Amino acid sequence: MLVFMGVIACYLVVALALPLYAILSKSFKNNDGEFVGLANYLEYFNTPSLTYSIQNSLTISIITTLISVTIAFTLAYGLSRSCMRLKGLFKIIALVPILVPSLLPGIALVYLFGRQGLIKELLFGHDIYGPIGIVISEVFFTLPHALIIIMTALSIADARLYEAAQSLNAGKVKTFFTVTLPGARYGLISAGFVVFTLTITDFGAPKVIGGDFNVLATDIYKQVIGQQNFEMGAVVSLILLLPAGVAFTVDRIMQRKQVALLSARAVAYEPKPSTSFDWIMFSWATIVSIFILTILGTCQYAALIKFYPYDLTLSLKNYQFDLMDGGGWESFYNSLELACWTAVIGTVLVFLGAYMVEKGKGFHLGRSLFQFLAMLPMAVPGLVLGLAYIFFFNSPNNPLNFLYHTMAILVISTVTHFYTVAHLTAVTALKQMDPEFESVASSLKTPFYRTFTRITVPVCLPAILDISIYLFVNAMTTVSAVVFLYGPHTSLASVAVLNMDDAGDIAPAAAMGMMIFYTNASVRILHGLLSRGVLRKTQSWRSR
Amino acid sequence: MKFTKFLAAAVMTGVMASPVFAATELTVYTAVEAEDLKKYAERFNEDHPDININWVRDSTGIVTAKLLAEKENPQADVIWGLAATSLLLMKSEDMLEPYAPAGLDGLDSKFRDKSEPPTWTGMDAWVAAICVNTVEAEANNLPMPASWQDLTNPVYKGHIAMPNPNSSGTGFLDVSSWLQIFGEDDGWAFMDGLHQNIHHYTHSGSKPCKQAASGEVAIGVSFAFRGAKSKADGAPLEIIIPSEGIGWDMEATAIVKGTDNMEAAKTLVDWSITDKANMMYNEGYAVIGKQALAKPVEHFPSNIPESMIDNDFEWAANNRKRILAEWQKRYDSKSEPKS
Hints:
The complex is a heterodimer of chains A (544) and B (339). Chain A is mainly alpha-helical and 544 residues long. Helices cover 71% and strands 1% of the residues of chain A. Chain A has 2 domains: 1-24 and 321-544, MetI-like fold, CATH 1.10.3720; 47-315, MetI-like (MetI-like fold, Orthogonal Bundle). Chain A has helices spanning 2-26, 39-45, 48-81, 87-95, 103-113, 131-155, 159-167, 172-201, 204-209, 216-226, 230-257, 275-304, 328-359, 364-375, 382-393, 407-417, 419-431, 436-443, 448-477, 493-502, 506-538; strands at 305-307, 311-314. The radius of gyration of chain A is 24 Å and the shape is globular. Chain B is of the alpha/beta class and 339 residues long. In chain B, 41% of the residues lie in helices and 19% in strands. Chain B is globular and about 60 Å long. The N and C termini of chain B lie far apart (90 Å). The model of chain B is unreliable at 9-21 and 335-339 (pLDDT under 50). At the A-B interface, helix 3 and helix 10 of A face helix 2, strand 2, helix 3, strand 7 and helix 8 of B.
């Protein structure tokens, strides 16, 4: 067992800790690799056009956080506390943005609000290229993440509190502010930090729709790709690491303060029908759904138009990816391959790792160190990870150098990038299992791997499936880490979207983005069917 | 008998065609337009079927960054189709293998590295140009610009896109050529004026023209090749060659120092300056390394060769860092509230 844990810990050290150290040391060196202390940092802070980006990034992220969390909260409130119709459908639609790359809303906004935009009048002369475009895209992109967290927070409500409020003659508004909001506060805070981190580290939306509004994430790209200034890229990376790291740390501390709201005696809250309230919520959910569907629909429409806006005949011309930048259809198949490998290898690695942390005995220091390493990827932006991988893996002194430009390095970086959420899912599932299983097993002298395969895995199968779909979907959509790492034979669909948009081939970019969406949606549906089948088979013990 | 002969022939061709037949794999880094790559490899394979090209294609900036990042451990064997300015950068880092390809004498003297033997040889020139969307120009009452200076006219305010020189090779080509055409002081003064009219700076050099083609902006500062392509696709575009002259850069070829496939690399570089290769470049580019062979290209303005300035690539490469820093200081915070 110790051996297993050692192997996975080694993985995290090699795939995470060492590359991060490489990028840190790079930021203190000059172009020739000599140590120059803080010179790069001084140069950074003496270049106003670079430091402006800090302010820009913070502004965008804070505004997005406020808007996204507000929308998510109101929507989640409607979904959990009203009796409106079509709840299931609204929920599915609201979760759709998870399935598309963050570049896609930006592309849709160009078609909707650009110079030739279908509904550009709605902006009243404002320019979509810039902060407005970035914020709309980021709200689209972060909404499902916020919604999932807040839904969970709102779903655990104790009906007795509401009954108490009613008997104390508290009005609806008062009840909302004294019972509902405080009950959901940890969810709201957590959602806020997640949205903030996602936005400040996202690179897709500002790249596509940001115009000349510089943010930290695009600065890293510009320093590295445009000016080949790797040292400055490393400096900006570390600066981007700061706010993301702070947000993450504060969130973890807050989470620790949270106490169980749902005691054993709690009674589940059941919403009562109320015509006016249900209608308001229904209208609101409809508006949010229309927003999401419009973005998707616009992209599909744009992908099928021959030459917008001068030739509106339908054609499949934009699907001739082989004639465009970005790697052609091969990149799509590469993405599928990456997603499959990431899902399989990642799930095994994450689940085993979580098992060691949760069910392992003794070796306490090692386990907490491992837990720390597993939480770390959440705070590391993808671009930073990608850049760190170049520095670390392409160094000729590195025996792992052969991995450079292979599918393997893409799989490693993607698994590492999305490790934390997968790890938390696994830990949560494992925590639900009584440690008695292990105690009984060891007193019966059953080896741990038998308990693991016979009991732990079957019981945790729903969580395992969730982890694999999470990794698959994200491997299909991610751009940030892999944009620095793909090689001659490993171009990826998501990067192709970026490169085609970059070259001005925006319609083919939309077409490829929609291919990613359809793939993820099909896999998601397949996953749903599979889970249902598996659940029936392995989880029947849950019901009597 | 006849049948066996046929069979033998069939087997032979089968063997010849199959890549298993001792093919050398060459990793070739390039910034050539994606739609042309297949053609380039096919034409080369007509003469050298035993060498298999593995393309690594990206925009100029990204390919250059990749090559520099891999300096300690190069992955590429050959670079075929990258800006000469980028190759000069690599030359100064001692990353290129000096090699005089067969038939070097036939090449225009502008189209080769000045060192002996040269570290790179040119293929074709890509030249700056202004793409104007005629429909949008009419709708917004914009006059046709005829010179670079015209673009500073306030009527164009918010109608022009140009590539950011910090991320685009074409953008740097524009800026470095303006500084050469107008001189340093007047060059920056011109850009100050132009900056007032810029709607946005793009990351890539072809995007301004593609955006002009789709009406996202009325005017895109880009390169002629891209404009001609979009025009061929049916975009309402006019390609303007400004009267002051135009900046240009070459697509060029070089061997990466330390390649394991030196023989095959030399074969490819030899081929890249043959007449056949030059005629192939001419299908898309008006100005090529052996200009005597060049035929006019459809949708290309005819006055390109005489409009090309006497571009000092060494100067541009040596001053690149300084120019980019100055540009960034002046213009790279376009969206900042202006004080």
